[in-house]
Amino acid sequence: MKSVALHNLGCKVNAYEMDVMQQMLQEKGYAIVPFDEVADIYIVNTCTVTHIADRKSRQMLHQAKTRNPKAVVVAVGCYVQTDTEKLLRDAGVDLAIGNNKKGEVVLLLERFLKEREAGQVSETIKSKGIIDVNADCAYEEMTLKHTAEHTRAYIKIQDGCNQFCTYCIIPFARGRVRSRRPEAIREEVEGLAKAGYKEIVLTGIHISSYGIDFADSGGSPKLSALLEYIHGIDGIERIRLGSLEPRIVTKEFVDRLQALPKICPHFHLSLQSGCDETLKRMNRHYTTGEYLRCVELLRAAYVRPAITTDIITGFPGETEEEFEITYAFLEKLGLFEMHVFKYSERKGTRAAAFSGKVPDSVRAERSGRLLALKKRQSREFRTAYIGQEAEVLFEDAKEIGGRQYQAGHTGQYIRVAKCTEEKLSNRIIKGRITGFLNDELMLME
Description:
Layout: E1 3-8, H1 12-27, E2 31-33, E3 41-46, H2 51-67, E4 72-77, H3 78-82, H4 84-89, E5 95-97, H5 105-117, H6 123-126, E6 152-159, H7 170-174, E7 178-179, H8 182-194, E8 199-204, H9 223-230, E9 238-241, H10 251-258, E10 266-268, H11 276-282, H12 288-301, E11 306-313, H13 320-333, E12 337-342, H14 360-383, E13 389-400, E14 403-410, E15 415-419, E16 428-436, E17 442-444
Parallel strand pairs: 1-2, 1-3, 3-4, 4-5, 6-8, 8-9, 10-11, 11-12, 15-17
Antiparallel strand pairs: 6-7, 13-14, 13-16, 14-15, 16-17
Helix pairs in contact: 13-14
């Protein structure tokens, strides 16, 4: 029996795919060990969304080879696709597997092991798992049966992106939109429900594009129809959505969501900038006015919905005035959470050739200001729930100040704790939120 150590970098899609790869390896008899232990095989699911992600991917691959020079080190995923030549020259990497071939990880690994034993390894063999993301690829079917989390499961519903924002390398790493058939999604959700999962999160590279590649779609998203199709599955009590493109949030879309009580009132609407001029340079296909109308539609339909977003600071050409416009817009929105990123140049994207580069120190200063705003607004949003009834899906136990707590999330994804010795994992319990336990947790009686 060979031992395999796995390490995942990047997004929830990567995490889902790593869970499935681990599942397939276990089913074939491989022993899974922690990544910081000596193993026969190391698999790193790489990320390339920023230059820091590239560096971390390389570091983890080299760390594995240093830990056991005789091990087979396998690089998988997005960094494999975007920096193929450098990776194939890397003596620390034995096998490269690209996106849309992760479902064949066991087959490709065992083929490599067999060929290495026969002394037939070549660069061609090393790169057999790399795909042409510009080719007309079908969705690669993978099915998750269980995950490290015991209460919540991520479900991948599509891959790829057709948006080509000027700063983003992901369409070059993941290819064009490929949607999973609704029947396969339903079958996976039913299996996870039978395994005891109460909450699912629909994720993908660009889930707002779900179904546009189906022959009968006419180029329109089919996300609402998918939600209606899986909503009635017994055992699933919550359905949470991954990141949404603002343009999908129409009155019809919100009305259809509102008719589905299992949908969590927690919506991640990617913004990236609160300045229309910056949005144009980013090739984002909406204005701040259109984004604001999306937020207003959701707030009219739900009581205090949690709305979160992504923001990039220091995009090429972002002047101090443009940043101040973004800051004022975000202050006006009053969101629950913001994920703030300093702009990272990605070779091969249009923005990499833009003039008006913003110094790193300025990017960092602007990022710091937005992080301070995020902290204040998050506190204000959660404060509004003090004294209110909430339903919490409990997930894990925590010891704080010598006392035992059970912790979990509300439908709005507010982290809540209850002081009790009772094991509450995977139970949804209603209670009153009484205040803050600490910066991370609110307290429920």
